[in-house]
Design brief:
- The chain is built from nine helices and no strands.
- By secondary structure, it is an all-alpha fold.
- The protein is flat, with a radius of gyration of 17 Å.
- The two termini are about 25 Å apart.
- The relative contact order is 0.16.
Length: about 180
């Protein structure tokens, strides 16, 4: 994923290799959980039938499921750092909440982009990806210098929120 690569590259350039390791492990909490995959397959069938009401219901349930998991990770972030890393990574605990939030918005934009792929209206995907990557580079350039590696988590979260909001409006128009 472009945003994750850019954030990691910038962190590496700033000589925070330990932060990159924790960042990568936190991002490994991928949004493709078993029940979520099943729900996404169901949404695809509903889209084929243009059953928007059922799609909305499935979307709400999936969003609740992934949201609860991400909030749970945010709550136990110091313990998660110790579980996935060691005591030397505890300083990275403040990065877990924005990265967990990013996982939620990765899930969100993935689901919200379904109609764009299904109905082959993908022009926005290309433009939005380029804009999100440029925004991420700019935000990282400014804020990592000021706040250190923790800023990369928040800049990535900001970009994924913007990306998700854009997909929401485009997909709503398509449906």
């Amino acid at each position: 994923d472009v945003l994750n690569y850019l954030a990691q590259s910038y962190i590496k350039n700033e000589r925070y290799q330990d932060a990159v390791d924790v960042y990568n492990r936190a991002l490994a909490a991928d949004p493709t959980f078993g029940p979520a995959v099943t729900g996404l397959c169901e949404m695809y069938k509903q889209m084929k039938e243009r059953d928007v009401r059922s799609m909305q219901q499935t979307f709400r349930l999936l969003t609740l499921f992934v949201g609860v998991l991400c909030i749970g990770l945010m709550v136990v972030s110091p313990e998660a750092v110790l579980l996935f890393g060691s005591h030397k990574y505890i300083d990275a605990a403040p990065v877990i909440p924005p990265v967990a939030g990013s996982v939620f918005f990765i899930f969100l934009y993935t689901v919200l982009s379904f109609p764009q792929f299904y109905f082959e209206k993908t022009k926005f995907l290309m433009v939005a990806s380029i804009l999100a990557a440029a925004l991420n580079i700019g935000l990282n350039w400014v804020f990592i210098q000021i706040f250190g590696f923790v800023a990369a988590g928040y800049t990535t979260l900001t970009c994924y929120i913007d990306y998700s909001v854009g997909h929401y409006f485009v997909s709503k128009k398509i449906l």
